[in-house]
Amino acid sequence: MQTHQYDVVIVGAGGAGMRAALEASKDARTAVISKLYPTRSHTGAAQGGMCAALANVEEDNWEWHTFDTVKGGDYLVDQDAAEIMAKEAIDAVLDLERMGLPFNRTPEGKIDQRRFGGHTRNHGEAAVRRACYAADRTGHMILQTLYQNCVKQDVEFYNEFYVLDLLTDHDLTTEELEDGAEVNATGVVAYDLATGEIHVFQAKAIVFATGGAGKIFKTTSNAHTLTGDGMALAYRRGLPLEDMEFFQFHPTGLAGLGILLSEAARGEGGILRNGEGERFMERYAPTIKDLAPRDIVARSMANEVREGRGAGPNKDYVLLDLTHLEPAHIDAKLPDITEFARTYLGVEPYTEPVPVYPTAHYAMGGVPTNVDGEVLRDSHNVVKGLYAAGEVACVSVHGSNRLGTNSLLDINVFGKRSGRSAAAYAKTVAQHKPLPENPAERVVQQLEEMRGRPDGERVADIRKALQETMDANAQVFRTGESLNTALSDIRELQKRYKNVSVQDKGKLFNTDLLEAIELGFLLDIAEVTVLAAINRKESRGGHYREDYPQRDDANYMQHTMAYRRPTSASDVADGHIEGYFDHVEEFDGYKVVLGSKPVTQTRYEPMERKY
Amino acid sequence: MTAVAENTRADAGTQTDDAPGAVASFEVTLKIRRYNPESEHGENVIWDEFTVQAHGTDRVLDALHKIKWEQDGSLTFRRSCAHGICGSDAMRINGRNRLACKTLLKDVNPDKPITVEPIKGLPVVKDLVVDMEPFFASYREIMPFLITSGNEPSRERIQSQADRDRFDDTTKCILCAACTSSCPVFWTDGQYFGPAAIVNAHRFIFDSRDEGAQQRLEILNDKEGVWRCRTTFNCTEACPRGIQVTKAIQEVKRAMITRAF
Amino acid sequence: MTTTPSAQVIPSPRDPYARRKTTRGNYELYSWVFMRASGVLLIVLIFGHLFVNLMVGEGVHRIDFAFVGGKWTSPFWQVWDLLMLWLAMFHGTNGVRTIINDYASRDLTRGILKTLLYLAFVITVALGTLVIFTFEPCPANADPALLASICFE
Predict the structure, then answer these.
(1) What letter does residue B93 receive in the DSSP assignment?
(2) Considering only Cβ atoms within 10 Å of each terminal Cβ, which end of chain B, N or C, has fewer?
């Protein structure tokens, strides 16, 4: 076992992690730990653009952007955070340009902008050109540009290191802590994939930027490596997860495969049609049609298919029609996604419509933070020295449904803010807080147990069953019944997981072992997602309950906060969980306590959400 | 470098399968080069054959996953995004460098066993995993970042779309190493900077906003730099992003010659 | 901090990598340009040489000691052949040097092969140059039937 000491340790090297690293490493000794090479991160898969009210091509301002974000999130957005994001978006885009990002240009040579779902002029009048883009490779360019600047700044990376535990100076799952009591994050425990060695990183400040958990679903645009590691680690250490019931399904995934086709396809003029050739979005969102927010489009598509108007032999998808666009225009603006259609489905988008169906895309929820990226341990107390940014975090700027392009914005704005605050905080701390005795104990035990089990359940079987039940029961349409089915399936799988075994018993590059560990994360995340969804008996944004199809502001204009506690934890320990929801679920050895956190409202009163 | 990419795709119009453009499921055998110093074989390389059931739209990566998940969990390879964006899973499939997630089984003649090997020229760590450090070290050496002087502008730097298009091709690079590890010159001693590093230098040398072209040309004007390129076009053929790699290298050479004379 | 799960520690396969040495300079650039330029010149020289030797007049049947001797009495052909020799040798040697660099992976093998190559270059060029400039077209006591006409002028 090796021990390292840094001022700031950043976990994850995607957009948020590297943006934080660029800030933090200016002022503090910083290390970035990533389970992949940085350029492999899934930020690179983002396509369409990054919105900022630059007003390069038409009138726009950040206040409209804030409104769109709040309305897009079905008013569950913390409006102060959304305002910060929309305001700082402009600098975030300009920062990236100055770092070298090759944006597409207007005839005057300024950054070009295009339309995107849910982004409107003057509070919903019409679609506005707000998304700054580089063809359909905006995420790729962001990731490359950030990595390039990390190389320039000589940022220290630990590549292919899996962070498997978070260390704090108080056990939040059992200890009774008073309001305002100081809790510090002291380090992380990581596993070096190449050698199988354990490394303990002691840090004054830690930034979690581990990304999402799309792999709880079967059909997903997410990478195989997006297994909710950061969320699960925080959750297991007693930190809450916020708004996990809200998962975004991107309308246009390649049918059957889930590979993302950017919303930019519709921003550039693409049209969704059902099996009868009808432009069905005219019925669901008469004003902005195909450019309605993703939750609405995804639901409309699923509804078309459900009502028998799907396309294809099994009528199980709809069509994205680009055939009326000039091939040259498609090549200039959407080269990658048309190639996906050709490569994976053998469909030529110039002449044929592309089969698409919603695909699990983005977790709106995550580790709760304030606008400086500081992680909350309940509805208002922060954990000192712990920060989170990006998809793993819930600020919450996305509320119950994220607008397209706002994730690239989120990682840049809040990545930067959390990197800066982490470094600033680290400078105020004279001495590293002591690590617990045997800091790696839990990880070592977990790994040894997993490796040592001679025979048992296969990881892939359990994961497949999990993904299938999530797709069947907790997808675009949910009911109390389907969610309970999912929950009991997950319980069953959790039992089976206890007996999971891996075939590869080695130390060198043991991906078999790590897949097993990741499955544990997935099960935890799926469980919280489903529990929070069961508890929220209303429909809002990405969470649609057929048994409660209306939004219910009277009872549910609250963020869900899910805490995991051992069943042995006293009721007093639960007592400090502020809870409007006040819901406790007990299982095998632990319970999930659902509390709440108020939504911050500033300018905008909740209104009916129509497009 | 003469692998045949036979297209066995049947006419999509006559399909009865549910997925569009799919062919019915079929059996496919993969012949995989294995190396695991911890195993009973020690430092020896062995070839393992696995047969799996595959569907029309399945990629080589799906077959590898099936093997790992259903037959042999110790089979080791890198992968992440699974649709050709992250660049994790470059490997030699039927003797040609490709991304496993972008290569459909039906396009690599599944009637015969498909050979899968790690990319060449980089030290193998385990099975299909190679040590990428030398590759990234070359990338870092060419100063892959925008170099400017003077004060930062308050808004964006102005660049015409034509200037932006000048280096568009080389911005697509995902650093998968398919090009570099397909280059016979790189195979010899691994000292050559390699196509990927030159492509990334090209991306900045021809960016109108950048002022570091001279430094990068100086770095690549090395015994191990662009002059080792023999224009065999292996790199262009291998690039999963369709970058005209050899052309980019030639353009860098030309820039050096115009600079010298 | 004493938990060591297992005594066996596998050394990191990712030892910090460094290029063996930086070898910047215009040498390779010039040799790259030279290859192309000398190639073009050699095409002219060689085809001119072949044309004069094989096509003009009686062609190949004409070639004998006298013919060669006659040519080398003219400074024009001396320079022509000298250029051809030097360019071909530089061009060829540089080409083989490149091949050795590409295909010999061990430094020792490379060193030996290149030493042999340069040795062959020096010998050939020196001998060739010597011959061109010291060639005696009309050696004494030779059979007059074999000599060029200039010997009798």
Answers:
(1) E
(2) C
CATH of the domain at C85: 1.20.1300.10
How far apart CA C84 and CA C82 sit, in angstroms, is 5
Q: How confident is the model at residue C151 (pLDDT cuts 50, 70, 90)?
A: confident
Tell me if B251 is assigned to some domain: yes
DSSP letter for each residue of B166-178 = HTHHHHT-----T
Whether residue A611 is predicted with pLDDT greater than 90 in this model: the reply is no
Q: Does the pLDDT at position A11 exceed 70?
A: yes
> What CATH number does residue B62 fall under?
3.10.20.30
Select the residue of C20, C24, C105 nearest B188 (Cβ to Cβ).
C105
- Residue C12: the pLDDT is 52
Q: Which residues of A touch B204 (CB under 8 A)?
A: 100
Residue B201 belongs to a domain with what CATH number? 1.10.1060.10
Q: Same domain for B97 and B203? A: no
Chain A residues with CB under 8 Å of B161 CB are 104-107, 109, 112
Is B82 part of a structural domain of the chain?
yes
Q: For chain B, give the number of residues.
A: 261
Domain count, chain C: 1
Q: What span, in angstroms and rounded, lies between the C-alpha atoms of A297 and C130? A: 87
Is the CB of residue A93 less than 8 Å from the CB of residue A111?
Answer: yes
- Verify cis geometry, omega within 30 degrees of 0, for the bond prior to C38: no
**Alpha-carbon span B22 to B39, nearest angstrom:** 39
Span C90-126, pLDDT tens digits: 999 999 999 998 888 888 999 999 999 999 999 999 9
Domain total in chain B: 2
A294 assigned to active site: yes
Cα–Cα dist A515/B88, whole Å: 16
- The interface residues of chain B toward chain A in range 101-140, judged by CB-CB distance below 8 A, are 102, 104, 125-126, 129, 132, 136, 139-140
pLDDT above 90: percentage of residues in chain A: 92
Cβ(B92)–Cβ(B237) below 8 Å: no
B5 pLDDT more than 50 = no
Are B66 and B170 within one domain?
no
Structure tokens at A44: 């690179």
B122-141 residues touching C, CB cutoff 8 A: 123, 125, 131, 133-134, 137-138, 141
C61 at interface of B, judged by CB pairs closer than 8 A: no
Burial letters for A534-550: b for 16+ Cβ neighbours within 10 Å, e otherwise? bbbebbbbbbbbeebee
| A neighbour chains, 3+ CB pairs within 8 Å | B, C
Subunits adjacent to chain C (3 or more Cβ pairs under 8 Å): A, B
First-to-last CA distance in chain A? 57
Cis peptide before A568 (omega within 30 of 0): no
* CATH class of residue range A440-562+571-598: mainly alpha
Asked if the C-beta of A200 comes within 8 angstroms of chain C's C-beta atoms, the answer is yes
pLDDT greater than 90 at residue A418: yes
Asked if residue C97 is part of any domain, the answer here is yes
- Domain of residue B107 covers 25-130
Give per-residue pLDDT as tens, C20-68: 778 888 999 999 999 999 999 999 999 999 999 888 888 788 888 888 8
Active-site option among A130, A273, A294, A565: A294
Neighbours of chain B (3+ CB pairs under 8 A): A, C
CB atoms A98 and B87 under 8 Å: no
Shared domain for B141 and B65, answered yes or no, is no
Does 3.90.1210.10 match the CATH number of domain A250-361? no
| Residue of chain A minimizing CA distance to C15 | A194
Distance from CA of B219 to the nearest CA of C (A): 7
CB contact under 8 A, C10 and A195: yes
Q: Which residues of A touch B68 (CB under 8 A)?
A: 460, 511-512
Take residue A404 and report the two structure tokens written for it: 């397209």
- To which residue do tokens 């496919």 refer? B28
